[in-house]
Amino acid sequence: MIFGSGNPKVPLLWTASLGITDTPLPRDQVPFQPWAKALFVDREKNELEPHARCKASGMTRQFLTPYGTEFVEMVDQQRIYIFDVGGPHTFRTIYMDGRPHPKDLVPSYYGHSIGRWEGDTLVVDSVGFNESFWWDRRGLPTTEQLHFVERFTRTDAQNMRYEFTVDDPGAYTKPYGGTMGIRASTGTELFEYICQQANYAHELMVGTAESVSRSTSIVP
Which of 68, 59, 75, 63 is nearest to 1 (CA)? Predict the structure, then answer.
């Protein structure tokens, strides 16, 4: 089992071994186009991240959360699912049956992912993204031309090497990539963060409220 513990009663959650505010790629190594760099600077200043507002954010951003993600490999269905419950309450599908990408994809937050095995490494090729998500925590821009490739290699029982390549000629002058570690947590469950009407965290983040009462039964 590359993702599980081998025991269905002992789930494994996977999170990045980076701190949640760290980045898998230094800023000075990103080959920005001018407009993309200007947008990135604005996002750093305003920090209006879609994932923090319960929008799905695929690729590397899935693992940069304290709540963890869970891989579920359905061998009979020839699919792998990545569940992201601690925020957007969504899951991503990786098709392992050899199908190609559809020609007329409707752009989406997760895009369309197809996977294959290269020895013990899972290689995932994804296209068909919209422009409404951040693939990392800092807000590196992407366009609908984004082609994202990921490589997952389990190095021991508790660790996995995660490699990625970003190819987006609409936002960058050349492809670029990076590597980070993903760490397993044994014997725990996905944490469910609820996006609810009485959760005032978003108002604090965008500056429409200076404080909220923490004396009631519902807190941010």
Answer: 75
